[in-house]
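Possible regression after last week's pipeline update?

I re-ran a chain I had predicted before the update to compare outputs. Posting the input and the new output here so someone can diff against the archived version. Not blocking, just want to make sure nothing changed silently.
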Amino acid sequence: MPSLLERLLGDGTPDEQVDLESRQNDADDALRESVEERGYAIDDCGVTGVAVVNEGPDGEPIIVPIARFSLGETVENPDMELVWDLVGEAADALQGPFDDVFVRHYDVQFTFDGDELFEAEECRRVALTDQFVDRYVTDDRFGLGDLREAIEVADDIDDEIAPVVWGECKDYSRTNNAAIVFAGSSAAAAAAANASAASCAGAGAAGGAGGGAC
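New output (post-update):
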């Protein structure tokens, strides 16, 4: 039987892909609604994709949901208080739809000093572990300040492993043996990387070209 990644990258549409697309859409709707309601001064946002980075022993997907915020074309030094407010919004939006899937971590990405979600000069990420996100969303005693402090304390010199505070955005389109599910399709990492630009736009496009925007 073909592996999950082989089926995701094949011609058909496996049930796992349909399920992840539905979860992505639910998270995207929740994020867009909350950001619009609170009137954050940003250009754009969306839950832009789900990276399937591995599979479990029974073929279950191991994933990295990706939320992305465009902070603005003229922003060179982002307001970190705003950044962490948006991290909290992303955690709230992502946790519910992906609660019963194996999440390696959540990627919350920020583009700035350029136009739109995938055309900026700069892209940085905050990578959140599943455990920290679950605690933030479900424990009223663990607020946004506690989440920020916990992530900052737990971050180390390895920007590949969550938690990560303000690291370089990871391009999942350039990760071997991964598939990106977005907007009703899945793409092979290598193929998406070849099709993407070398800029931050390319780094984000394959990893999150789908999903709605605020």
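Follow-up from reviewer: compared with the archived run. The mean pLDDT is 83. Marking as no regression found.
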